[in-house]
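Hey all, sorry for the wall of text incoming. These are the three entities for the joint prediction.
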Amino acid sequence: MSESAVIEEVKTNPQGDVITSAPPPKADAKKGAASQRVVSPDYLMLQAPREAVFMTGSEAAKEAIRRANVDIAISYPITPQSETMQQVGYLYAEGYLKDYYRGEEEYGVMSAIAGASRAGVRCLTATAGPGLIRGMEVIASWPGGRLPSMLLIMCRVINAPLAIQPDNVELSYMLNTGGILFHAENQQDFYDYILAGFMIGEKPEVTLPVAVAVDGFFVTHARGWVSLPSADIKLPPRDCYHEAVPMMDNENPPIRISRDAPIQKSNFISYHMHASWQQEVWAAQARANKWVKRWMGSPIEVVNPTAKTIIVASGAMVSQSREAVRQASEQGIEVGLVKIKSLRPFPSQELVEAVDGADRIIVPEFNYVGWLAKEVRSAIPRTERVISGPRVFGGMTMPTELIMSYVKGRR
Amino acid sequence: MSLETIRVAPGFKEYLPREYQDLVDDGPFGRERKVSEVGSFKEAVEEHPMCAGCAMTLFIRTAIVALPSLENTVIIGTAGCGRLVLSQTAVPFIYGNYGDTNAVASGLKRGLAIRFKDKPKDVVVMAGDGGLADIGFSAVMHSWFRKERFTTVMLDNEVYGNTGGQESGMTQRGAILKMAPLGKKFEKMDMMGLAKTAGVAYIARVVPTNATRVANTIRKAVLIAREVGPTYVQAYTSCNIEYAIPTPKVMDDARMIEQQRYGFSEYFTDEAKSYWEHYERERRQVKGPDGESED
Amino acid sequence: MVMMNRGAVYEVLPGPEGILPPAATVMGVCLPEEGEGLLHGRIVSEEEAMRSAAIAMLTRRNPTLFPGPLMLWGWTEHTRDKSAPFFEVAREIPGVRIIPMPDYRPIYPKIDPEAVINPCHPNLTIWHNKIEACVLIGVHCHFANVTLKIIRGGTNCFTIALCAEAGHEDAMSSVPNVGAEKIARFAEILRLVKKEGVKPLYAGQGIIPSGWAQVASLGGSAGGQNGAFVDNGLSHHGLSHDLEHGLDENEE
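and here's what came out:
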C-alpha cells in the first residue's frame, strides 16, 4: 500500500497557490490495477492485515475505490467534492476503473448513474450541497428503481447566500428517499463505509443505492490516520443477476419487463401497487441492518454507556463530542456518547437501548434545522430527555466549550 | 446469448399466455423483419392504450419492426404518450424521470459496453418533443457532444399531448395552445441544425407516410449509432387530439405537413457515410443485388 | 396451524389484513439463514417451513403454483434444471393449478385472471380463482415482495415463497437459496406428509388445466377437465371486465 501514499510533487503558481491540473499517469501506472486480485468482502473488510497511513478524506475515498472493483465513475465538479472525483479520475487513468467521464451537471450525472446501474455495472459518483439538491429528483428515484450504486456526499451549505462551507442540512433531504445513508466521522470511516456500502447495496434482499456522507473540509481536506489493507486486493465484482430486479441488458427474463412500472392509471389498483412498492423499498432498507452489523461492527458506537448525560451525534460532530467527553471527564463529569454510523436504516432499537439509562440526551449538530435531534426524538421513549442542540451552521466549527455548556446544563 | 431469454423452460409452454407463445413461435427475434412482412409474424408491440388513429403509434410500431436486433435492444423513454405503447412492447423499456433520457442512455450504453465487449447492445431513446427539446435538452445536447453511441428518436407531435395540449419548443410559431393563449411567440426549435452543430453522425427527418422509409431510417440510425456515433431521427407524429385532426384525416395531415415543411431529409457525417456505403456493399454481396432493401 | 403465543412478536398469517399491512421486515421479522426457513414470521428449520407449506398446499382450497419469469424461461442451465423438480412438485399436489407470472408490466387493457398473475394486482387472480394456498417461485425478489404484501392485505391465501436468494418475510412460509435440489426436496416432503397421514383435499385429481391451458380449453379447443374447484358464480368474463372501468386515465 505504501506507494500510493507517496505525496506527489506539489506545483504552485507565483502566488503560491497549488496548481491542481492532473499529473499524467506514470509509465508503470497500470501495473497496480492489473495485479489486483479479488478477495472475499469479509477478508478485505475484516481480516486483511492493515497499515496506518496519514491522509486526507478525499485520499481515503480514493483508497477505498481503488479496492472496490468499480466499473464506472461519473464526475462533476463542485467544492468540496471535486478533489475526490479527480482522484478517482487518476484511478481510471491507472486502469482501476473501466470507464469514467465528466457529466453535464448533477441531474445528468445522477441519471447516467441510474442508466449504468440498470446495465448491471458497479457505479460511483460524488457531489456536495447544491449539487446534491440539483440531482435530488433522480436520487429520490433510485431506491424505487432498486438501483445499487455509490453516492459520496461532501456536505456544504445549500441555502442562499451561496457558500462553500460545511453545513450538513442537505442530509435531511436524503433521509426520506428510501436509500441507505451512512455518515462518516473521519477519514477512516470514509474509507471503511464506502467498501461496506458497495457490498451492502448489492445484496439481493437489499438492492438499493448507498450514500456515504462526510462533513466537507473537516474530513475531506483534513488529514487523519487511515488503516488500510494492501492495495493488491479488491472486492468481488457486482453480481447483477442475483439482485431484486432484472437487469436492463436484454439478457435476462422477462422480455417484457416494466421494471420502472408506469403504474399511473388513476385507479385503486395502481395506487395499491405503488404503496406496496414503497413499503418494499423501506423494507429493503431495513434488511441492510444485518450487513451493517457484519461489516461496520454495529450501526452505532457507544462510549460510557452508564452515563446519565449522553451525547448523540453523527459525522464530524462525533469527533467534537469525543473531545467534550474527554474534557468533561477531566472535570470529573461522566458523559456518554452514541455515534450514529447509519442514518438509514436508522438504528432505532440500538439507540433506545443505548440511552435507556440516560436522563439527558444532548444532540449537537452542524445545521440549523436539527434533523438528527428530530430523528432521535422520533425513535426513543421519554423524549423530554432530548436537548435539541447545540447547533452551529453556515460553516462554523463547533467549539467544545459550547457542547460543555450544554453538558453542564447552562443551556 | 440473449435469445435464451425467449427460450421457454421445459414443460411450461402450454401455461404461457397466448401472446407469449406467439412471440416464442413466430416473434420478431433473431432476424431482421421487413415492414412488408407485418401481419405475417407476431409483432413485439402488444395491446396498448394509445388513441385511435394516432400517428405516433403507427410510427412506433413501424420503428420497432425496423430495429436491427430486437433481442439486443433497450429502449428508453420519458413521460409522454409514447411510453404507453413502449411499455407494452417485448423489449426492455426504461421509464425514468422527466427529461433524463439521454443521460440515462449514456450511463446504460457505457455500462453495457463494459459488460458485453463483443456483442453490440443497441440503446434507443424514443421520447417526445417536450422530453427531448425542452426538459431534456441539456442531456440531449451533451450526449451528442460526448459522441455517445446511441440513437435518439424524437416523437415530434409539436405539443405536450399527454399533459393535455401545452405549447412545446417544437410547436410552430403562432400556434394557439395551452400555455400559449396568444399563440406561440418564437420559432420551432431547429433540433436538426443543433444536431449537426453537435457533430451527430446521422440525422434524419421523417413523416410516417411511408412505412418503408421510416423502417430504413430507423435501421440506418441504429446501425450507425452502433458503429460510428450518435444519431438523431426527428419524426412528425401528429397529435390528432390536441390539433383536432379528424381521425380519418390523420394521414392526410401527415402528407400535407410533409409537403409543406417536414419533407424527408437526411444528413451523414463523412465517417457515417463511408460506414454506411461499406455496410450496404457488404449486404448486397451477401444478399444479392436486391438485397433486403425496401426503398 | 397451531401458533405458539409469541406475545408482541409480529405474525405473518393468511389475511385479509386490510389495506396496506406493514412489511413484515419493518415489524422485526428477519430473513432465514441457509438451512432455515420462515414460518409465519418465525425462523424455523427448513424442514419445518417446507412441511407447513406442503400441508397448506395439500389441504387448502384451489392450491396454485405461480412460476415467475426466472422459472418460465430457460435462460440458463440452472433454470432449465429446475423445471423437472417443479413439475414433480406439481404432481404431488392433487388438484393443483399452474398460473404463470410471465412478466411485471401492468397488462393492458386488463389481465385475464385465469391465465396470468401480475404483481400490479395479484389479488385479482387469487380472488377470481379462490386460491387459498400458493407458491411463488422464480419471481424477482422485489416483485415477489410487492405481490406477497398485496395478497396478504386482501386475501386469505396462504403464501409460500421458494426463493433462489434470501427468502421473503411477507410469505407465510419461505425458504431461501432454492435451486433444483431444494425444489426436489419439497416434492419429497409433500410425499412424506401424505405418508404421515395428511389427506389431500383433492385426492385423486391431477394437475388442473390452468393458466393459458385452461383458457384455451374453455374456448373448446382442448378437452379434459375443467376448473371444477373454482366456484365463484361468475361467468368467464365477469369480474375482470367489471374492473376494467376507470382504467382510462394516463395523465402524468
